[in-house]
Here is the input.
Amino acid sequence: MKTSRLGVGVVFSFVTGVLFTNPILQGAVSEWNTFPKGNSVVINGEYQTPNDPRPNRPKQTKAVWKVEGAVVGGSMQADMEQLFSRSPAQDASDVRISAKVPVRSLTMFTPTTTTWLHGFLKYDKHPNIEFELQQFKVLSVDEKQTLKAEATGRLSMAGASHPVTVPVTLSRNAEGHVIIEGAFTIDLSLYLTLPQKPFRMFSDKPPTIHDSDDLPPTKKDAQVTFRWCLQPKKVELTHG
Here is the structure.
């Protein structure tokens, strides 16, 4: 791709006709947006299967449910070169992160359970699960330029919003993208009224044994893992 440097931190592509802000050249706070590939969100939880009333059969056992998605939107603002060279003692208050996952992009087992999930998360009134950063704390940066940090902010889902602290790892790939990965546990009962009969809703197969009326509710703790790929913000060329 043929390019021309037009000024500090700005590169023009003759092939695409697009201006790119280049944070490495800029050496200042710049905006990074979602790259359309390489993103993922997985939410894992547990529930219990019904008692099997037949003789010598196991009683309630643990089973898992999984929600998956491949769309993460939003943006990050930071001086990336300085960020990847900071020590834990240095201030990182210039970092801004706003991320969202469209509820309709999430899937769960089958089309039927996916439709139920979207309604359960109240997508008609709250179409996105959102995270807004309040504090970014650098923990370490190793010799491979892998940065570990804590991102504290508010997680909003289904009309409720609560503080969370997320351990994250930032790295850069050969294409110059910034990859943010993390895993954390959330208390679902803070955001939702959990199903009292989760086996009926979460199972990827129809029940083959007695579906009792005294099933325990879904366990409130769920594990969230994600991968977010970011690229420098593109600036469309305007002709005067």
In short: The two ends are 25 Å apart (CA to CA). The domain at 28-233 is CATH 2.40.128.110 (Lipocalin). Confidence is low (pLDDT under 50) at residues 1-26, 204-215.
